[in-house]
Amino acid sequence: MIALRSTGEALALGAKLAGVVRPGDIIALSGPLGAGKTSIVRGLLAALGLEEEAPSPSFAIVQPYDPPEVRLPVLHVDLYRIEDASEVEELGLEDAQADSLLIVEWPERLGEEHWADALWFSLKPMPDGARGLTVRVPAAWKDRWSLT
Question: Which of 2, 20, 41, 109 stands 20 to 30 A from 32 (CA)?
Fold first, then answer.
């Protein structure tokens, strides 16, 4: 387990990810409310060129970012309010994934089997205020994962 001791460390992890992501990638972020998922995403988006702070897509469900505001197309998805897997089909994520980076918060709402190719982050608040991070690295990421 990796300890992220501050929001700055979460932002820095996201910035490092920005250096290795490419269209077609999926990053899944799992953990309770306030665990730091959006902080990692904000660091990644800032490093991809987003000038303003990225909002949490909790209410919009899907927040798209396109060049020139970022280096590559990104869909930031928050499945927290999804009640049924059929609702996700209406979002068109599978079609968009081919040419976009897909970042999914609360991926477990759809089921882990749906995200087999995702770089999967699990965050857990620790008693000392840090965030414990575990990472599941799929084959598609093995040659790129050296960020921690």
Answer: 20
